[in-house]
Design a protein that fits this description.
By secondary structure, this protein is α/β, with parallel strands linked by helices. The chain has 10 helices and 12 strands. The strands form 3 sheets. Strands 3-4-5-8-9-10-11-12 form an 8-stranded parallel β-barrel, surrounded by 4 helices. Helix 1 crosses helix 2 and helix 2 packs across helix 3. The model has no long low-confidence stretch (mean pLDDT 93).
Length: 305
């Protein structure tokens, strides 16, 4: 599988990354999904301490232990929780981050994390303190690089100005093109995007909309259900049987320079195989990308600017 450089770092990550959140807590099943992804060329695995209150990290840690050195492992912190109790609290303090990363290392059964990400963030955070925590962890060799997971422009601007982040995880797809407004600035700062939500809750797949239980009656973001039905039909007519909608969705993201990897969750080995097959097809042409932009909306972030 093709690999891309993550920001200004020396990390090279596969164009498709495996997101841990959908793995579930069945250890045998989750392990088989992780094994399948790695065997087929995925070298980038993304999790978070909050997923199943650390259990996701534990499962991934066991699954990759024998080939840890061959992988780029990413996790996230900043949410303080107590195992066994519902809920969590946002805590981007230096004290919490330095404790959280140690807990993640233990659960992942590793002595370093390739990419440690702040799992959220607001403009009211002690941002300088948070950056200091990341920089110290990097100096200690506990993390190789750090980034943030955010869709808040005001937060993104602060980290671009003040920190040495190499990546931002952003929700990005044909149906959520809001990040595109920021791509030139991110490229200028040599910061990569790793994308989540790239098939937009399954809308950008071959599953009929009426079978999509995760889709709200109100539609998706600024799209009404009627608009989604029309768009899905147009996409299928344009690409026919040559490309699946997942294929189109992944390659639309990857066609944009700042995007280093598309992170996709999977709840079965079959899903992993389908996703890998989609990302390994030829990229979209300039004409196809232009057409896709003409039939989708260019929304902008309205809050937290």
């Amino acid at each position: 599988m093709n690999k891309r450089q993550l920001g200004s770092s020396d990390l090279k990550i596969s164009e498709l990354g495996l997101g841990g959140m959908s793995l579930g807590t069945d250890v045998a099943k989750a392990t088989s999904i992780v094994d399948e992804a790695i065997d087929l060329g995925v070298n980038y695995i993304d999790t978070a301490d909050l997923y199943d209150q650390g259990e996701n990290e534990e499962i991934i840690g066991k699954a990759i232990k024998s080939r840890r050195k061959d992988l780029i492992l990413a996790t996230k912190g900043g949410n303080r929780f107590e195992t066994g109790k519902d809920g969590w609290e946002w805590d981007p303090s230096k004290k919490h981050i330095q404790k959280a990363v140690k807990d993640s290392l233990r659960r992942l059964q590793t002595d370093y994390i390739d990419l440690y990400q702040l799992h959220g963030g607001t403009i009211d955070d002690p941002i300088d303190e948070t950056i200091e925590a990341f920089e110290e962890l990097k100096q200690e060799g506990v993390i190789r690089e750090y980034g943030i997971s955010s869709i808040r422009p005001n937060v993104i601007r602060e980290y671009l100005k003040k920190s040495s982040i190499v990546s931002i995880m952003m929700q990005y797809s044909l149906l959520d093109r809001r990040p595109e407004e920021w791509f030139d600035l991110l490229s200028k700062h040599q910061v990569s995007v790793v994308t989540r939500g790239s098939i937009a809750k399954g809308i950008l797949s071959n599953r009929p909309l009426h079978e999509n239980k995760s889709l709200s009656d109100k539609g998706y973001l600024s799209y009404t259900t009627s608009e989604l039905e029309t768009l899905q039909k147009e996409l299928k007519e344009r690409f026919g049987s040559d490309r699946s909608l997942i294929d189109v969705a992944f390659h639309y993201n990857l066609a944009h320079t700042p995007v280093a990897s598309v992170i996709a969750g999977a709840s079965s080995s079959e899903q992993v195989r389908d996703q890998i097959q989609a990302v390994q097809t030829a990229g979209l042409t300039v004409e196809e990308i232009t057409w896709l932009k003409s039939v989708t909306k260019t929304d902008l972030y309205e809050q937290h600017r």
